[in-house]
Design a protein that fits this description.
This protein has helices at residues 19-26, 29-32, 42-55, 107-121, 137-145, 174-179; strands spanning 3-5, 9-13, 63-70, 76-83, 91-98, 127-133, 149-160, 163-173. The protein is of the alpha+beta class. The chain has a single domain (3-179), classed as Aminopeptidase (3-Layer(aba) Sandwich). An eight-stranded mixed beta sheet has the order 1-2-3-4-5-6-8-7, sandwiched between helices. The longest helix has 15 residues, at 107-121. The two termini are 30 Å apart.
């Protein structure tokens, strides 16, 4: 089982027992504001977690999903991932989700920074990218704190909650990360 650790956080691989708490976090109205479609049921979420657990034994491995746990009290706070989405193994996408009780304390930045370091140092990636609904200012702030550069906007490319939304695209190159 692969674990990563920061000063305050343990990033560990998913286990079945994580389903309930992560489902509760992911279906909170504040998180759903920027998500497409209705919240998934706990049963559907369980199947998603089963797929993630199955992928943990893939060789070669293309995605790494971690539960974010606070070291001080072992409380599950959310999740973070880094995943190679296409055949180009030189780049990967990151994403994160934290329960609302853990917002505005730097945890999302700390967890995402840890997987970025993993991506560049261990996976030897050239480019790491992320996307966020442009109105999701909290996520945009996290990406800025990670020194990710805004590369562009996909205008009105997502339709949910009865309206069109823009998606902001961010990326960080290995040499930019090494220089920061």
């Amino acid at each position: 089982m692969m674990n990563l650790q920061t000063e305050r956080l343990l990033l560990r691989e998913f286990v079945r027992e994580d389903v309930h708490v992560l489902h509760q976090y992911s279906t909170h109205p504040a998180l759903q504001r920027f998500e497409q479609g209705p919240p998934v049921s706990e049963f559907q979420f369980h199947r998603i977690v089963q797929d993630i657990i199955a992928e943990q034994s893939d060789e070669p491995r293309r995605s790494f999903y971690f539960v974010v746990e606070r070291l001080a009290d072992s409380r599950v706070m959310g999740s973070v991932y880094i995943a190679q989405r296409n055949q180009d193994r030189e780049q990967a996408e990151i994403g994160y989700m934290l329960g609302v009780d853990f917002w505005n304390e730097g945890y999302a930045t700390e967890a995402a920074d840890c997987v970025i370091q993993f991506g560049f140092e261990v996976l030897r990636l050239h480019r790491i990218y992320a996307e966020a609904v442009c109105e999701n200012l909290a996520s945009i702030r996290v990406l800025g704190k990670l020194n990710m550069r805004r590369e562009g906007v996909l205008r009105e490319n997502q339709y949910f909650h009865s309206r069109w939304w823009d998606t902001c695209m961010y990326a960080l190159l290995r040499h930019e990360w090494a220089d920061s």
